[in-house]
UniProtKB/TrEMBL annotation:
This is Coenzyme A biosynthesis bifunctional protein CoaBC. One of its GO terms (molecular function) is catalytic activity. SUPFAM superfamilies: Homo-oligomeric flavin-containing Cys decarboxylases, HFCD. InterPro entries: Flavin_trans-like, Flavoprotein. It comes from Streptomyces jeddahensis.
């Protein structure tokens, strides 16, 4: 698909949680709000989504690994990022500054550049009780990252559009540039 230059570009970062199988709901909602959308999945997140369907829906290849140095960049710079679902693992690694997946490297850089980022955590009560979780959310929040309520249940009621509502509070379109 040709880049829709008149539309802002949203990165949807998808982690390895069960609700990821319904991420098409977020993509549809974002497109209805005039976002052009590209998906970055964590390596394990790839196993939770229907890559063929999502690539057809977005018009872009799903990214999960870094490109080779000489290859063109598959996505334009993001105007905003939605992390949904966000796992315990990715939230903690992001807060710690670990960038060992394309998703994490993109998040670490985008938050550093001031690109608006909204996060919908899908983290169980047990994992959320680990002290690292609260500290990570607090650290990322201080960096300006926007958090929706933590979701603990199944796919019902995940509230995908909350990510877009949070981004709208930041004017929706980013100030920063990243070049993953
Ligand atoms: C079926 C299944 C469902 C999972 N659901 C969640 C979840 O909702 N939240 C979570 O934090 N981890 C969940 N996990 C564990 C993560 O997949 C695991 O921590 C993984 O390392 C996360 O990788 P990522 O953060 O790079 O996507 C689930 C694992 C499986 C196999």
């Amino acid at each position: 698909m040709t880049r829709q230059a008149d539309k802002p570009f949203l990165y949807v970062v998808v982690c390895a949680a069960g609700v990821a199988e319904e991420v098409s709901k977020l993509i549809t909602a974002a497109q209805e709000r005039n976002w052009d959308v590209g998906v970055i999945a964590t390596p394990l997140g790839l196993g939770f989504i229907d890559a063929v369907a999502i690539e057809a829906q977005t018009g872009y290849p799903i990214r999960s690994a870094w490109r080779s140095p000489g290859d063109p960049r598959p996505f334009p710079d993001p105007d905003a990022v939605a992390v949904a679902p966000a796992t315990f693992n990715t939230i903690n690694k992001w807060a710690a500054g670990i960038a060992d997946t394309l998703a994490l490297g993109t998040l670490c850089e985008a938050s550093g550049l001031g690109v608006p980022i909204a996060v919908l955590p899908r983290v169980s009560d047990g994992l959320a009780a680990h002290p690292a979780y609260e500290e990570s959310v607090a650290r990322l929040s201080r960096m300006g990252v926007l958090f929706g309520d933590r979701h603990e249940g199944g796919a019902d009621g995940f509230g995908w559009e909350r990510a877009l509502d949070l981004l709208a509070t930041r004017g929706g379109h980013g100030a920063g540039r990243v070049r993953p």
